[in-house]
Amino acid sequence: MSMVIDIDARGARHCETSTLGVLLRHRGVDLSEAMLFGLGAGLSFVYWDSRNLGFPFLGGRVKPFELTRNLAAELGLELQVRETTSPRKAWRNVTESVDAGAPVGLQLDSHHLDYFSSKAHFGGHIVALYGYDERNALLVDTDQQGGAVSTSLTSLALARAARGPMTARHRSFTLTVPKKRPSPASRIVPAVTACADAFLNPPIANLGHRGIEKAGRLVPGWLERTDDPGRDLPQAALLMEKAGTGGALFRNLYRDFLGECAQLLDSDELRTGHRLYTEAAIRWTEVAALITEAGETGDPGCLARAGATLGEVSRIEREAMRALSRLG
After folding, report:
1. Closest Cα partner for 273 from 313, 310, 317?
2. Which of 72, 117, 131, 216 reaches 20 to 30 Å from 200, CA-CA?
3. Which band of pLDDT confidence, cut at 50, 70 and 90, is reported for residue 52?
């Protein structure tokens, strides 16, 4: 028994927007990855460190699956989410949708997937499934992971059953597009202002512009935070630039989103936000390069410069989000 849906299997830069693109194109809605990311209010910042973490983590987006929920709410999409503790029922949830002709989004731990290049655990990874047979599943992942790929059903079951940080209980989801729905252009203002307000008013000091400022104070001490700086610092920088972020810790994607918005709506606030996020994206890439250099050379001066640059980034992004919060 095999079942394959005919889909547009383009991958993209980030896993969640890649999956949303597949599901929505199948329903006749084709939006750029940047537009999906921005309408889903995907941009954020978190500085995360705790005793059980080997090394601090810098995150540039909202929690896994929050972007999907935000996008569905903004665009009036019908989002059906299924979760279960039963692996058998979880697989039946998937096959029922695919057999009915609808690709399915899955949240899982990428560590177990046969094709995945990094073997680190990440329980917030999201892929689209569009076909299967007795042995393998056909998936769409990011361009970096190969776009249209396949993995064994055994590996898929392990990935979906994984427990730990950011995992979900065999989560699968589908999207339907109602005939009457708001145009994407009409949802730019609420999506942008919601993202700006969350960034400007974080509940704790690790998040938003306060989190970037905090990172600026703490990054200069990172050489003392690790017993293997040659491994941990370049790895942290790699996550910022390459790990499905679209570069510059998702700032490239948000810059492109604001650029598209400024072409659709005549707005000084959008143009200001776009200009400032263009600048912020350049600085984030500079920070990643300095962190890599510090790991390779052991030079604390590189981390001091990275910390100072993060202080500037906090100011630039705060100014951008203040302008964007006044939109509309």
Report:
1. 317
2. 72
3. confident
Tokens in use for 280?
A: 């912020």
* Residue pointed to by tokens 């990011």: 142
Work out the number of other CB atoms within 10 angstroms of the CB of residue 182.
Answer: 11
| This prediction's pTM | 0.96
SS3 labels along 299-323? CHHHHHHHHHHHHHHHHHHHHHHHH
pLDDT digits (tens, 9 = 90+) for 106-146: 999 999 999 988 878 889 999 999 999 999 999 999 999 99
Phi, psi of 276 (to 5 degrees): -70, -35
DSSP 156-170: HHHHHH--STT--SS
Sign of the Cα torsion 101, 103, 106, 109 reads: positive
Hunting for tokens 């200009």 — which residue is that?
275
Side chain identity at residue 31, one-letter code: L
pLDDT tens-digit readout, 174-221? 999 999 999 999 999 999 999 999 999 999 999 999 999 999 999 999
